[in-house]
Amino acid sequence: MKTSSPQESLSNFGQHMGYRLAEWTEGSASIALTITECHLNSAGIMHGGVLATLIDTACGYTLIHNPDPKKRNRAVTLSLNTQFAASAKTGDELIATGLLKGGGKHIKFLSCDVKNQHGQLIGHGEAVMKLF
């Protein structure tokens, strides 16, 4: 199994959101995020869009893995389903772990669990992505 550096540069959006690539191996990627005030909705808990972003990002990084940056694939999300299991608040450390489940040459199926620092499931998602 080839592993890439978790210090890979993220997109401008990733830097804006504050998430970081915690682990990146063939068939799996983990994205970490510390919840801050900017991630909260009007009820004072993490906005659902943050969860969807973590799921989409973890699945995307899972799919494009290659230790050689020049040989990385590119991918787009065709479908993203999210399930919300628990809320997250300021200071919570979340880890979204994407896993490649299968697929054909270009269309791939992935899943992702998002857990807090205590191992509690915050959300789950499934994605269909296309490589190009």
TrEMBL record:
Gene3D superfamilies: Hotdog Thioesterase. It comes from the Bacteria. SUPFAM superfamilies: Thioesterase/thiol ester dehydrase-isomerase. Keywords: Hydrolase. It holds the Pfam family 4HBT. CDD domains: PaaI_thioesterase (cd03443). Residues 44-121 form the Thioesterase domain. InterPro entries: ACOT13, HotDog_dom_sf, PAAI_dom, Thioestr_dom. GO terms for molecular function: fatty acyl-CoA hydrolase activity. NCBIfam families: unchar_dom_1. Belongs to the thioesterase PaaI family. This is Thioesterase domain-containing protein. It comes from Kiloniella litopenaei.
